Amino acid sequence: MGNGLSLRLKIILILVAVFAVYAAIDVAVLRLAILPEFEALELREAIDDMERVESVLRREESQLAAFCMDWSFWDDSYAFVADRNSQFIASNITDSTFLDNKLNLIYYLAADGAVAYGAAHLLPSMRPARIDDIGPEGPRGPLRAIFRQRLEQGFSGLWLSGHGPIMLTFQPILTSKKQGPVRGMVVMGRFLNKDMLAALAEQTKVRARFWPLDGVTEKDKLIAGDLAVLRRDGGKLTRRLADGSIEVLSLLAGLDGRPVLLARTVNKRGIIEQGAAAVGYALASTLAAVVIMLALLLVLLNRTVVSPLARLTAHMVDLGQTDDLSKRLRLKRDDELGAMANEFDRLAQRLLEARQSLVEKSYVSGQADMTAGVLHNVGNALAPLLFGLNQSLDGLRAMPLGNMARAAGQLAEDGLEPARRGQLLEYLSLAQDDVRQCVAALEADLQTVLAGVGRLERILKEATDVRRAERPLEPVWLDHLTREAFSMVAPGLQSRFALRLGPGLERVGAIRAHRMPLLQIMGNLLTNAAEAIARGGATGTVTVDADREEHERGPLVHLRVSDDGAGIAADQLDLIFQRGFSGKGAGGSGLGLHWSANAAMSLGGRLYAHSEGPGQGATFHLLLPAGESS
Questions:
Q1: Alpha-carbon distance 164 to 77, whole Å?
Q2: Which residues have CB under 8 Å from 121's CB, separation 6+?
Q3: Of 179-183, 271-275, 488-492, which gets the smallest average pLDDT?
Q4: Which end of the chain is more exposed for a tag (fewer CB within 10 A), N or C?
Q5: What backbone torsions phi and psi does residue 215 show, to the nearest 5 degrees?
Q6: 3-state secondary structure of 101
Q7: Which bin fits 344, alpha (ψ -120 to 50), beta or left (φ > 0)?
Q8: Model's pTM, two decimal places?
Q9: 316 SS3 class
Protein backbone atom coordinates (compact mmCIF):
# COMPACT_ATOMS: atom_id res chain seq x y z
CA MET A 1 0.00 0.00 0.00
CA GLY A 2 1.27 3.51 -0.75
CA ASN A 3 1.53 6.45 1.57
CA GLY A 4 -1.52 8.20 0.04
CA LEU A 5 -4.93 8.57 1.62
CA SER A 6 -7.06 5.47 1.78
CA LEU A 7 -10.36 5.33 -0.11
CA ARG A 8 -12.30 5.28 3.17
CA LEU A 9 -10.52 8.42 4.39
CA LYS A 10 -11.02 10.14 1.03
CA ILE A 11 -14.76 9.42 1.12
CA ILE A 12 -14.96 10.68 4.69
CA LEU A 13 -13.10 13.87 3.77
CA ILE A 14 -15.28 14.43 0.68
CA LEU A 15 -18.50 13.92 2.65
CA VAL A 16 -17.28 16.12 5.49
CA ALA A 17 -16.31 18.80 2.97
CA VAL A 18 -19.70 18.59 1.20
CA PHE A 19 -21.65 18.80 4.46
CA ALA A 20 -19.34 21.53 5.74
CA VAL A 21 -20.12 23.57 2.62
CA TYR A 22 -23.83 22.87 3.11
CA ALA A 23 -23.61 23.87 6.78
CA ALA A 24 -21.69 27.03 5.85
CA ILE A 25 -24.34 27.95 3.27
CA ASP A 26 -27.08 27.25 5.81
CA VAL A 27 -25.31 29.38 8.41
CA ALA A 28 -24.85 32.14 5.85
CA VAL A 29 -28.54 32.04 4.92
CA LEU A 30 -29.62 32.10 8.55
CA ARG A 31 -27.14 34.78 9.52
CA LEU A 32 -27.35 36.96 6.43
CA ALA A 33 -31.01 36.50 5.44
CA ILE A 34 -33.13 35.26 8.36
CA LEU A 35 -31.48 37.06 11.28
CA PRO A 36 -31.56 40.46 9.51
CA GLU A 37 -35.31 39.94 9.06
CA PHE A 38 -35.65 39.62 12.84
CA GLU A 39 -33.53 42.75 13.24
CA ALA A 40 -35.73 44.60 10.75
CA LEU A 41 -38.84 43.35 12.59
CA GLU A 42 -37.44 44.55 15.90
CA LEU A 43 -36.65 47.93 14.35
CA ARG A 44 -40.19 48.12 12.97
CA GLU A 45 -41.52 47.18 16.40
CA ALA A 46 -39.47 49.96 17.99
CA ILE A 47 -40.84 52.47 15.52
CA ASP A 48 -44.34 51.10 16.13
CA ASP A 49 -43.83 51.67 19.87
CA MET A 50 -43.06 55.32 19.21
CA GLU A 51 -46.03 55.58 16.86
CA ARG A 52 -48.27 54.03 19.56
CA VAL A 53 -47.05 56.65 22.02
CA GLU A 54 -47.84 59.38 19.51
CA SER A 55 -51.19 57.78 18.76
CA VAL A 56 -52.14 57.63 22.45
CA LEU A 57 -51.16 61.28 22.82
CA ARG A 58 -53.39 62.14 19.88
CA ARG A 59 -56.17 60.06 21.39
CA GLU A 60 -55.74 61.90 24.70
CA GLU A 61 -55.98 65.15 22.79
CA SER A 62 -59.17 63.92 21.09
CA GLN A 63 -60.70 62.80 24.38
CA LEU A 64 -59.77 66.09 26.05
CA ALA A 65 -61.25 67.98 23.10
CA ALA A 66 -64.47 65.95 23.28
CA PHE A 67 -64.76 66.63 27.01
CA CYS A 68 -64.11 70.31 26.45
CA MET A 69 -66.82 70.42 23.75
CA ASP A 70 -69.34 69.22 26.33
CA TRP A 71 -68.62 72.46 28.23
CA SER A 72 -68.29 74.76 25.21
CA PHE A 73 -71.49 73.63 23.43
CA TRP A 74 -73.68 74.49 26.43
CA ASP A 75 -76.22 77.21 26.87
CA ASP A 76 -74.99 77.98 30.41
CA SER A 77 -71.45 78.50 29.17
CA TYR A 78 -72.81 80.61 26.31
CA ALA A 79 -74.64 82.79 28.79
CA PHE A 80 -71.75 82.98 31.27
CA VAL A 81 -69.33 84.50 28.79
CA ALA A 82 -71.88 87.22 28.12
CA ASP A 83 -73.07 88.00 31.69
CA ARG A 84 -70.10 86.76 33.78
CA ASN A 85 -72.47 85.26 36.34
CA SER A 86 -70.34 84.08 39.25
CA GLN A 87 -73.00 81.62 40.27
CA PHE A 88 -72.14 79.58 37.14
CA ILE A 89 -68.58 79.15 38.32
CA ALA A 90 -69.55 78.37 41.87
CA SER A 91 -72.00 75.72 40.74
CA ASN A 92 -69.99 74.03 38.03
CA ILE A 93 -66.26 74.54 38.54
CA THR A 94 -64.95 73.26 41.87
CA ASP A 95 -61.81 71.43 43.02
CA SER A 96 -63.49 68.14 42.27
CA THR A 97 -63.97 69.31 38.67
CA PHE A 98 -60.20 69.49 38.32
CA LEU A 99 -59.43 66.36 40.34
CA ASP A 100 -62.11 64.06 38.99
CA ASN A 101 -61.41 64.94 35.39
CA LYS A 102 -57.63 65.23 35.86
CA LEU A 103 -57.67 68.73 34.53
CA ASN A 104 -54.88 71.12 35.34
CA LEU A 105 -56.37 74.13 33.55
CA ILE A 106 -59.85 75.55 32.79
CA TYR A 107 -60.27 78.93 31.11
CA TYR A 108 -63.28 80.78 29.68
CA LEU A 109 -62.14 83.30 27.09
CA ALA A 110 -64.32 85.91 25.44
CA ALA A 111 -64.21 86.40 21.69
CA ASP A 112 -61.70 89.22 22.11
CA GLY A 113 -59.47 86.96 24.23
CA ALA A 114 -60.38 88.47 27.58
CA VAL A 115 -60.50 86.00 30.48
CA ALA A 116 -64.00 85.49 31.83
CA TYR A 117 -62.69 82.79 34.15
CA GLY A 118 -59.34 81.09 34.48
CA ALA A 119 -57.64 78.73 36.89
CA ALA A 120 -54.62 76.41 36.70
CA HIS A 121 -53.59 73.94 39.43
CA LEU A 122 -51.01 71.31 40.15
CA LEU A 123 -52.72 68.02 40.94
CA PRO A 124 -53.47 66.64 43.42
CA SER A 125 -52.26 69.44 45.73
CA MET A 126 -54.35 72.03 43.88
CA ARG A 127 -51.50 74.53 44.21
CA PRO A 128 -51.70 77.28 41.61
CA ALA A 129 -49.81 76.62 38.40
CA ARG A 130 -48.10 79.28 36.34
CA ILE A 131 -49.21 79.60 32.72
CA ASP A 132 -47.06 82.29 31.15
CA ASP A 133 -48.82 82.38 27.78
CA ILE A 134 -52.33 83.18 29.20
CA GLY A 135 -52.68 86.35 31.31
CA PRO A 136 -55.64 88.34 32.60
CA GLU A 137 -56.00 89.95 29.21
CA GLY A 138 -56.04 86.52 27.53
CA PRO A 139 -53.60 84.55 25.35
CA ARG A 140 -50.23 86.14 24.68
CA GLY A 141 -47.69 85.99 21.96
CA PRO A 142 -47.95 83.15 19.39
CA LEU A 143 -50.84 81.60 21.31
CA ARG A 144 -52.91 84.77 20.86
CA ALA A 145 -52.35 84.68 17.09
CA ILE A 146 -53.50 81.09 16.94
CA PHE A 147 -56.53 81.98 19.09
CA ARG A 148 -57.62 84.67 16.68
CA GLN A 149 -57.05 82.59 13.57
CA ARG A 150 -58.98 79.57 14.78
CA LEU A 151 -61.65 81.08 17.02
CA GLU A 152 -64.52 79.41 15.24
CA GLN A 153 -62.81 76.10 14.57
CA GLY A 154 -61.28 74.93 17.78
CA PHE A 155 -57.87 73.34 18.05
CA SER A 156 -55.79 71.06 20.31
CA GLY A 157 -52.14 70.30 20.85
CA LEU A 158 -49.10 70.51 23.06
CA TRP A 159 -47.67 73.67 24.52
CA LEU A 160 -44.75 74.54 26.79
CA SER A 161 -45.74 76.20 30.02
CA GLY A 162 -43.84 77.30 33.06
CA HIS A 163 -44.46 73.89 34.61
CA GLY A 164 -43.49 71.88 31.57
CA PRO A 165 -45.40 70.56 28.57
CA ILE A 166 -49.15 70.70 28.73
CA MET A 167 -51.85 69.29 26.45
CA LEU A 168 -54.29 72.09 25.60
CA THR A 169 -57.63 72.13 23.77
CA PHE A 170 -59.47 75.29 22.63
CA GLN A 171 -63.16 74.80 21.70
CA PRO A 172 -65.57 77.55 20.51
CA ILE A 173 -68.46 78.54 22.86
CA LEU A 174 -71.79 77.90 21.19
CA THR A 175 -75.27 77.08 22.28
CA SER A 176 -76.29 73.54 23.11
CA LYS A 177 -77.52 73.31 19.54
CA LYS A 178 -74.08 74.43 18.32
CA GLN A 179 -75.41 77.75 17.16
CA GLY A 180 -73.67 81.07 17.40
CA PRO A 181 -72.28 83.50 16.96
CA VAL A 182 -69.12 82.28 18.72
CA ARG A 183 -68.78 84.15 22.02
CA GLY A 184 -65.38 82.86 22.93
CA MET A 185 -63.56 79.61 23.77
CA VAL A 186 -63.35 77.12 26.57
CA VAL A 187 -59.74 76.09 27.24
CA MET A 188 -58.82 72.92 29.15
CA GLY A 189 -55.38 71.43 29.73
CA ARG A 190 -53.49 68.53 31.28
CA PHE A 191 -49.82 68.56 32.17
CA LEU A 192 -47.65 65.72 30.87
CA ASN A 193 -46.65 64.87 34.43
CA LYS A 194 -45.56 61.57 35.96
CA ASP A 195 -49.10 60.38 36.48
CA MET A 196 -50.05 61.05 32.88
CA LEU A 197 -46.87 59.41 31.59
CA ALA A 198 -47.53 56.40 33.83
CA ALA A 199 -51.01 56.10 32.39
CA LEU A 200 -49.52 56.48 28.92
CA ALA A 201 -47.05 53.68 29.61
CA GLU A 202 -49.86 51.49 30.94
CA GLN A 203 -51.83 51.94 27.76
CA THR A 204 -48.97 51.48 25.33
CA LYS A 205 -46.77 49.10 27.36
CA VAL A 206 -43.95 51.43 26.34
CA ARG A 207 -41.87 53.63 28.60
CA ALA A 208 -41.52 57.02 26.99
CA ARG A 209 -39.54 60.07 28.00
CA PHE A 210 -40.08 63.65 26.89
CA TRP A 211 -37.81 66.69 26.78
CA PRO A 212 -39.10 70.22 26.26
CA LEU A 213 -37.14 71.70 23.42
CA ASP A 214 -36.50 74.94 25.27
CA GLY A 215 -34.36 73.15 27.84
CA VAL A 216 -32.90 70.13 26.13
CA THR A 217 -29.45 71.63 25.50
CA GLU A 218 -28.84 72.30 29.15
CA LYS A 219 -30.28 68.99 30.33
CA ASP A 220 -28.74 66.51 27.94
CA LYS A 221 -25.94 67.29 25.50
CA LEU A 222 -26.32 63.94 23.69
CA ILE A 223 -30.01 64.52 23.12
CA ALA A 224 -29.13 67.99 21.89
CA GLY A 225 -26.94 66.43 19.19
CA ASP A 226 -29.72 64.06 18.16
CA LEU A 227 -32.11 66.99 18.11
CA ALA A 228 -29.93 68.74 15.57
CA VAL A 229 -30.09 65.67 13.32
CA LEU A 230 -33.87 65.41 13.69
CA ARG A 231 -34.36 69.06 12.90
CA ARG A 232 -32.17 68.74 9.83
CA ASP A 233 -33.55 65.44 8.47
CA GLY A 234 -37.03 65.35 10.00
CA GLY A 235 -38.91 62.16 10.83
CA LYS A 236 -37.57 59.74 13.41
CA LEU A 237 -34.10 58.75 14.49
CA THR A 238 -33.37 55.09 15.36
CA ARG A 239 -30.18 53.49 16.62
CA ARG A 240 -29.09 50.36 18.43
CA LEU A 241 -27.60 50.87 21.87
CA ALA A 242 -24.68 49.02 23.42
CA ASP A 243 -26.98 46.53 25.21
CA GLY A 244 -28.71 45.66 21.93
CA SER A 245 -31.91 47.61 22.58
CA ILE A 246 -33.24 50.08 20.00
CA GLU A 247 -33.69 53.75 20.79
CA VAL A 248 -36.23 55.82 18.83
CA LEU A 249 -36.30 59.62 18.97
CA SER A 250 -39.15 61.69 17.52
CA LEU A 251 -40.13 65.36 17.49
CA LEU A 252 -43.70 66.19 18.62
CA ALA A 253 -45.32 69.29 17.12
CA GLY A 254 -47.18 71.87 19.22
CA LEU A 255 -50.25 74.00 18.64
CA ASP A 256 -48.46 76.13 16.09
CA GLY A 257 -47.07 73.14 14.16
CA ARG A 258 -43.53 73.64 15.39
CA PRO A 259 -41.73 70.94 17.46
CA VAL A 260 -42.10 71.46 21.17
CA LEU A 261 -41.18 68.05 22.62
CA LEU A 262 -38.50 65.43 21.95
CA ALA A 263 -39.92 61.97 22.66
CA ARG A 264 -37.72 58.94 23.34
CA THR A 265 -38.62 55.24 23.56
CA VAL A 266 -36.35 52.27 24.13
CA ASN A 267 -37.30 48.86 22.79
CA LYS A 268 -35.63 46.16 24.84
CA ARG A 269 -33.81 43.42 22.95
CA GLY A 270 -36.62 40.90 22.68
CA ILE A 271 -37.41 40.04 19.08
CA ILE A 272 -33.78 39.83 18.05
CA GLU A 273 -33.04 37.56 21.02
CA GLN A 274 -35.92 35.33 20.04
CA GLY A 275 -34.70 35.43 16.45
CA ALA A 276 -31.16 34.58 17.55
CA ALA A 277 -32.53 31.72 19.65
CA ALA A 278 -34.56 30.49 16.67
CA VAL A 279 -31.55 30.78 14.39
CA GLY A 280 -29.41 28.99 16.96
CA TYR A 281 -31.97 26.22 17.23
CA ALA A 282 -32.14 25.99 13.44
CA LEU A 283 -28.35 25.83 13.23
CA ALA A 284 -28.16 23.23 15.97
CA SER A 285 -30.86 21.11 14.35
CA THR A 286 -29.17 21.50 10.95
CA LEU A 287 -25.80 20.48 12.34
CA ALA A 288 -27.38 17.56 14.17
CA ALA A 289 -29.10 16.48 10.95
CA VAL A 290 -25.82 16.87 9.07
CA VAL A 291 -23.97 14.73 11.62
CA ILE A 292 -26.68 12.05 11.57
CA MET A 293 -26.82 12.02 7.76
CA LEU A 294 -23.02 11.95 7.58
CA ALA A 295 -22.88 9.01 9.98
CA LEU A 296 -25.59 7.12 8.08
CA LEU A 297 -23.91 7.79 4.74
CA LEU A 298 -20.56 6.66 6.10
CA VAL A 299 -22.09 3.45 7.48
CA LEU A 300 -23.92 2.73 4.21
CA LEU A 301 -20.92 3.58 2.04
CA ASN A 302 -18.66 1.53 4.27
CA ARG A 303 -20.92 -1.53 4.01
CA THR A 304 -21.82 -1.23 0.36
CA VAL A 305 -18.68 0.22 -1.23
CA VAL A 306 -15.64 0.80 0.97
CA SER A 307 -15.45 -2.56 2.76
CA PRO A 308 -15.88 -4.64 -0.44
CA LEU A 309 -13.30 -2.45 -2.19
CA ALA A 310 -10.97 -2.84 0.79
CA ARG A 311 -11.34 -6.64 0.55
CA LEU A 312 -10.67 -6.50 -3.17
CA THR A 313 -7.65 -4.23 -2.65
CA ALA A 314 -6.24 -6.42 0.14
CA HIS A 315 -6.71 -9.48 -2.08
CA MET A 316 -4.88 -7.81 -4.96
CA VAL A 317 -2.05 -6.66 -2.68
CA ASP A 318 -1.78 -10.15 -1.24
CA LEU A 319 -1.52 -11.62 -4.72
CA GLY A 320 1.16 -9.09 -5.57
CA GLN A 321 3.17 -9.88 -2.44
CA THR A 322 2.75 -13.65 -2.33
CA ASP A 323 2.56 -14.24 -6.10
CA ASP A 324 0.03 -16.97 -5.35
CA LEU A 325 -2.41 -16.76 -8.25
CA SER A 326 -4.39 -19.74 -6.94
CA LYS A 327 -6.12 -17.61 -4.27
CA ARG A 328 -9.70 -16.50 -5.00
CA LEU A 329 -11.75 -13.65 -3.51
CA ARG A 330 -15.22 -15.13 -4.16
CA LEU A 331 -17.08 -11.91 -3.29
CA LYS A 332 -20.77 -12.83 -3.39
CA ARG A 333 -22.53 -9.69 -4.55
CA ASP A 334 -24.97 -8.96 -7.35
CA ASP A 335 -23.76 -5.41 -8.07
CA GLU A 336 -20.86 -3.94 -10.04
CA LEU A 337 -18.36 -4.68 -7.25
CA GLY A 338 -19.37 -8.33 -7.26
CA ALA A 339 -19.01 -8.49 -11.03
CA MET A 340 -15.58 -6.84 -10.82
CA ALA A 341 -14.45 -9.30 -8.10
CA ASN A 342 -15.65 -12.28 -10.16
CA GLU A 343 -13.90 -10.95 -13.25
CA PHE A 344 -10.71 -10.47 -11.22
CA ASP A 345 -10.92 -14.09 -10.00
CA ARG A 346 -11.33 -15.26 -13.60
CA LEU A 347 -8.44 -13.03 -14.67
CA ALA A 348 -6.24 -14.48 -11.93
CA GLN A 349 -7.12 -18.00 -13.15
CA ARG A 350 -6.22 -17.09 -16.71
CA LEU A 351 -2.98 -15.48 -15.52
CA LEU A 352 -2.13 -18.64 -13.59
CA GLU A 353 -2.67 -20.79 -16.66
CA ALA A 354 -0.77 -18.33 -18.85
CA ARG A 355 2.14 -18.19 -16.41
CA GLN A 356 2.43 -21.96 -16.31
CA SER A 357 2.52 -22.04 -20.10
CA LEU A 358 4.96 -19.14 -20.19
CA VAL A 359 7.28 -20.80 -17.68
CA GLU A 360 7.44 -23.88 -19.83
CA LYS A 361 8.12 -21.87 -22.99
CA SER A 362 10.51 -19.42 -21.37
CA TYR A 363 12.66 -22.23 -20.00
CA VAL A 364 13.77 -23.19 -23.50
CA SER A 365 14.04 -19.55 -24.57
CA GLY A 366 15.93 -18.67 -21.40
CA GLN A 367 18.39 -21.46 -21.94
CA ALA A 368 19.03 -20.23 -25.47
CA ASP A 369 19.28 -16.62 -24.29
CA MET A 370 21.71 -17.58 -21.52
CA THR A 371 23.76 -19.61 -23.96
CA ALA A 372 23.88 -16.69 -26.40
CA GLY A 373 24.96 -14.36 -23.60
CA VAL A 374 27.62 -16.78 -22.41
CA LEU A 375 28.91 -17.21 -25.95
CA HIS A 376 29.02 -13.43 -26.37
CA ASN A 377 31.05 -13.07 -23.17
CA VAL A 378 33.24 -15.98 -24.22
CA GLY A 379 33.82 -14.18 -27.53
CA ASN A 380 34.81 -11.02 -25.66
CA ALA A 381 37.21 -13.06 -23.50
CA LEU A 382 38.67 -14.88 -26.49
CA ALA A 383 39.59 -11.68 -28.34
CA PRO A 384 42.60 -10.74 -26.13
CA LEU A 385 43.40 -14.46 -25.75
CA LEU A 386 43.74 -14.94 -29.50
CA PHE A 387 45.69 -11.70 -29.78
CA GLY A 388 48.16 -12.97 -27.15
CA LEU A 389 48.53 -16.31 -28.87
CA ASN A 390 49.18 -14.61 -32.20
CA GLN A 391 51.80 -12.42 -30.59
CA SER A 392 53.42 -15.52 -29.03
CA LEU A 393 53.40 -17.25 -32.41
CA ASP A 394 54.97 -14.21 -34.06
CA GLY A 395 57.60 -14.14 -31.29
CA LEU A 396 58.45 -17.77 -31.85
CA ARG A 397 58.74 -17.20 -35.58
CA ALA A 398 60.99 -14.22 -35.01
CA MET A 399 63.56 -16.24 -33.00
CA PRO A 400 66.84 -16.74 -34.99
CA LEU A 401 67.11 -20.41 -33.99
CA GLY A 402 68.05 -21.60 -37.54
CA ASN A 403 70.78 -19.03 -37.92
CA MET A 404 72.11 -19.89 -34.48
CA ALA A 405 72.24 -23.60 -35.46
CA ARG A 406 74.14 -22.84 -38.67
CA ALA A 407 76.59 -20.58 -36.77
CA ALA A 408 77.18 -23.34 -34.21
CA GLY A 409 77.80 -25.84 -37.07
CA GLN A 410 80.39 -23.58 -38.64
CA LEU A 411 82.18 -23.16 -35.29
CA ALA A 412 82.51 -26.96 -35.12
CA GLU A 413 84.34 -27.14 -38.44
CA ASP A 414 88.13 -27.59 -38.43
CA GLY A 415 90.43 -24.99 -39.84
CA LEU A 416 88.06 -22.07 -39.19
CA GLU A 417 89.84 -18.78 -39.43
CA PRO A 418 90.17 -16.89 -36.18
CA ALA A 419 88.51 -13.76 -37.53
CA ARG A 420 85.54 -15.81 -38.72
CA ARG A 421 85.33 -17.63 -35.40
CA GLY A 422 85.23 -14.28 -33.60
CA GLN A 423 82.38 -13.06 -35.79
CA LEU A 424 80.38 -16.24 -35.23
CA LEU A 425 80.89 -16.09 -31.48
CA GLU A 426 79.79 -12.44 -31.43
CA TYR A 427 76.71 -13.29 -33.51
CA LEU A 428 75.78 -16.17 -31.20
CA SER A 429 76.11 -13.88 -28.20
CA LEU A 430 73.84 -11.27 -29.77
CA ALA A 431 71.39 -13.91 -30.98
CA GLN A 432 71.32 -15.38 -27.46
CA ASP A 433 70.26 -11.99 -26.11
CA ASP A 434 67.51 -11.76 -28.76
CA VAL A 435 66.29 -15.25 -27.85
CA ARG A 436 66.28 -14.33 -24.17
CA GLN A 437 64.15 -11.23 -24.91
CA CYS A 438 61.82 -13.23 -27.14
CA VAL A 439 61.40 -15.86 -24.41
CA ALA A 440 60.61 -13.13 -21.87
CA ALA A 441 58.04 -11.55 -24.23
CA LEU A 442 56.65 -15.00 -24.94
CA GLU A 443 56.34 -15.66 -21.21
CA ALA A 444 54.43 -12.36 -20.76
CA ASP A 445 52.15 -13.19 -23.65
CA LEU A 446 51.54 -16.62 -22.23
CA GLN A 447 50.71 -15.08 -18.84
CA THR A 448 48.12 -12.88 -20.60
CA VAL A 449 46.77 -15.92 -22.39
CA LEU A 450 46.68 -17.81 -19.12
CA ALA A 451 44.71 -14.96 -17.44
CA GLY A 452 42.30 -14.94 -20.38
CA VAL A 453 41.88 -18.67 -20.09
CA GLY A 454 41.16 -18.24 -16.40
CA ARG A 455 38.46 -15.67 -17.13
CA LEU A 456 37.05 -17.92 -19.80
CA GLU A 457 37.02 -20.77 -17.31
CA ARG A 458 35.19 -18.61 -14.75
CA ILE A 459 32.63 -17.52 -17.35
CA LEU A 460 31.91 -21.13 -18.22
CA LYS A 461 31.86 -22.13 -14.56
CA GLU A 462 29.50 -19.22 -13.80
CA ALA A 463 27.15 -20.41 -16.53
CA THR A 464 27.38 -23.99 -15.20
CA ASP A 465 26.78 -23.03 -11.55
CA VAL A 466 24.16 -20.33 -12.12
CA ARG A 467 21.26 -22.68 -11.42
CA ARG A 468 22.96 -24.58 -8.63
CA ALA A 469 23.53 -21.94 -6.00
CA GLU A 470 23.62 -18.24 -5.25
CA ARG A 471 26.61 -16.34 -6.59
CA PRO A 472 29.01 -15.46 -3.76
CA LEU A 473 29.33 -11.85 -2.70
CA GLU A 474 32.88 -10.57 -2.49
CA PRO A 475 34.61 -7.21 -2.04
CA VAL A 476 34.99 -5.47 -5.38
CA TRP A 477 37.09 -2.31 -5.90
CA LEU A 478 35.57 -0.53 -8.83
CA ASP A 479 38.81 1.11 -10.00
CA HIS A 480 40.60 -2.28 -10.10
CA LEU A 481 37.57 -3.86 -11.76
CA THR A 482 37.56 -1.14 -14.44
CA ARG A 483 41.23 -1.65 -15.24
CA GLU A 484 40.71 -5.42 -15.50
CA ALA A 485 37.69 -4.86 -17.76
CA PHE A 486 39.88 -2.61 -19.95
CA SER A 487 42.29 -5.52 -20.43
CA MET A 488 39.37 -7.57 -21.78
CA VAL A 489 38.79 -5.10 -24.62
CA ALA A 490 40.19 -6.26 -27.96
CA PRO A 491 43.64 -4.70 -28.55
CA GLY A 492 42.49 -3.15 -31.82
CA LEU A 493 39.77 -1.26 -29.86
CA GLN A 494 42.03 -0.41 -26.92
CA SER A 495 44.07 1.81 -29.19
CA ARG A 496 40.95 3.78 -30.08
CA PHE A 497 40.44 5.44 -26.69
CA ALA A 498 42.14 6.64 -23.55
CA LEU A 499 40.60 5.36 -20.30
CA ARG A 500 40.08 7.99 -17.60
CA LEU A 501 39.13 6.93 -14.06
CA GLY A 502 37.18 9.53 -12.11
CA PRO A 503 37.91 10.34 -8.44
CA GLY A 504 34.55 8.90 -7.41
CA LEU A 505 35.78 5.35 -7.99
CA GLU A 506 38.34 5.68 -5.21
CA ARG A 507 35.88 7.47 -2.90
CA VAL A 508 33.32 4.71 -3.30
CA GLY A 509 35.93 2.14 -2.36
CA ALA A 510 35.00 -1.52 -2.26
CA ILE A 511 31.46 -2.85 -2.49
CA ARG A 512 30.22 -6.36 -1.86
CA ALA A 513 28.92 -7.68 -5.17
CA HIS A 514 29.06 -10.62 -7.58
CA ARG A 515 32.38 -9.88 -9.15
CA MET A 516 32.31 -11.97 -12.34
CA PRO A 517 28.98 -10.71 -13.78
CA LEU A 518 29.97 -7.15 -12.86
CA LEU A 519 33.32 -7.58 -14.64
CA GLN A 520 31.56 -8.86 -17.76
CA ILE A 521 29.12 -5.92 -17.69
CA MET A 522 31.99 -3.43 -17.44
CA GLY A 523 33.85 -5.24 -20.23
CA ASN A 524 30.78 -4.99 -22.47
CA LEU A 525 30.31 -1.28 -21.65
CA LEU A 526 33.96 -0.42 -22.38
CA THR A 527 33.87 -2.46 -25.59
CA ASN A 528 30.64 -0.74 -26.63
CA ALA A 529 32.18 2.70 -25.89
CA ALA A 530 35.31 1.85 -27.91
CA GLU A 531 33.20 0.72 -30.87
CA ALA A 532 31.13 3.94 -30.68
CA ILE A 533 34.35 5.98 -30.82
CA ALA A 534 35.64 3.84 -33.73
CA ARG A 535 32.39 4.49 -35.65
CA GLY A 536 33.15 8.20 -35.30
CA GLY A 537 36.34 7.63 -37.25
CA ALA A 538 38.73 9.02 -34.63
CA THR A 539 40.16 8.35 -31.19
CA GLY A 540 38.48 9.48 -28.00
CA THR A 541 38.19 9.22 -24.24
CA VAL A 542 36.11 6.94 -22.05
CA THR A 543 35.50 8.23 -18.51
CA VAL A 544 34.41 5.92 -15.70
CA ASP A 545 33.24 7.50 -12.44
CA ALA A 546 30.94 6.59 -9.55
CA ASP A 547 29.11 8.03 -6.53
CA ARG A 548 27.06 6.71 -3.64
CA GLU A 549 23.41 7.81 -3.64
CA GLU A 550 20.45 7.37 -1.33
CA HIS A 551 17.29 5.88 -2.83
CA GLU A 552 14.01 4.54 -1.47
CA ARG A 553 15.37 0.99 -1.80
CA GLY A 554 18.49 1.92 0.18
CA PRO A 555 22.00 3.12 -0.65
CA LEU A 556 23.10 2.58 -4.26
CA VAL A 557 26.32 2.95 -6.21
CA HIS A 558 25.83 4.98 -9.39
CA LEU A 559 28.49 3.93 -11.92
CA ARG A 560 28.81 6.03 -15.11
CA VAL A 561 30.65 5.05 -18.31
CA SER A 562 30.84 8.06 -20.65
CA ASP A 563 32.33 8.28 -24.14
CA ASP A 564 32.66 10.97 -26.79
CA GLY A 565 31.79 8.66 -29.65
CA ALA A 566 29.00 8.41 -32.22
CA GLY A 567 26.18 8.96 -29.70
CA ILE A 568 22.69 7.43 -29.67
CA ALA A 569 19.48 8.71 -31.25
CA ALA A 570 16.69 9.46 -28.78
CA ASP A 571 14.39 6.79 -30.26
CA GLN A 572 17.07 4.12 -29.74
CA LEU A 573 17.90 4.73 -26.06
CA ASP A 574 15.56 1.92 -24.99
CA LEU A 575 15.92 -0.25 -28.09
CA ILE A 576 19.67 -0.81 -27.60
CA PHE A 577 18.92 -3.11 -24.63
CA GLN A 578 16.57 -5.32 -26.63
CA ARG A 579 17.80 -8.68 -27.76
CA GLY A 580 18.95 -8.67 -31.37
CA PHE A 581 19.01 -4.88 -31.73
CA SER A 582 22.40 -3.35 -32.54
CA GLY A 583 23.41 0.19 -33.28
CA LYS A 584 26.46 -1.12 -35.17
CA GLY A 585 24.43 -2.21 -38.16
CA ALA A 586 24.88 -5.64 -39.72
CA GLY A 587 28.16 -6.20 -37.86
CA GLY A 588 26.58 -6.28 -34.39
CA SER A 589 25.06 -9.26 -32.60
CA GLY A 590 22.63 -7.31 -30.37
CA LEU A 591 23.55 -9.48 -27.38
CA GLY A 592 26.10 -7.52 -25.33
CA LEU A 593 23.92 -4.71 -23.96
CA HIS A 594 20.90 -7.03 -23.73
CA TRP A 595 22.84 -9.49 -21.60
CA SER A 596 24.37 -6.65 -19.54
CA ALA A 597 20.93 -5.16 -18.76
CA ASN A 598 19.61 -8.57 -17.66
CA ALA A 599 22.74 -9.20 -15.61
CA ALA A 600 22.35 -5.80 -13.91
CA MET A 601 18.78 -6.72 -12.97
CA SER A 602 19.96 -10.06 -11.59
CA LEU A 603 22.44 -8.15 -9.42
CA GLY A 604 19.56 -6.09 -8.03
CA GLY A 605 20.41 -3.04 -10.10
CA ARG A 606 19.53 -1.30 -13.33
CA LEU A 607 21.30 -0.29 -16.55
CA TYR A 608 20.14 2.60 -18.72
CA ALA A 609 21.67 5.04 -21.24
CA HIS A 610 21.60 8.76 -21.95
CA SER A 611 22.76 10.68 -25.00
CA GLU A 612 22.23 14.17 -26.36
CA GLY A 613 21.95 12.64 -29.83
CA PRO A 614 24.12 11.42 -32.72
CA GLY A 615 27.66 12.73 -32.55
CA GLN A 616 27.23 13.86 -28.92
CA GLY A 617 28.62 10.80 -27.19
CA ALA A 618 26.75 8.66 -24.66
CA THR A 619 26.72 7.77 -20.97
CA PHE A 620 25.70 4.39 -19.61
CA HIS A 621 24.40 4.43 -16.03
CA LEU A 622 24.73 1.33 -13.90
CA LEU A 623 22.91 1.37 -10.54
CA LEU A 624 23.99 -1.30 -8.04
CA PRO A 625 23.14 -2.03 -4.41
CA ALA A 626 25.94 -0.48 -2.36
CA GLY A 627 26.33 -3.49 -0.06
CA GLU A 628 28.92 -3.21 2.71
CA SER A 629 31.88 -0.99 1.91
CA SER A 630 35.40 -1.81 2.93
A1: 29
A2: 95, 98, 104, 105, 127, 128, 129
A3: 271-275
A4: N
A5: -130, 10
A6: coil
A7: alpha
A8: 0.45
A9: helix
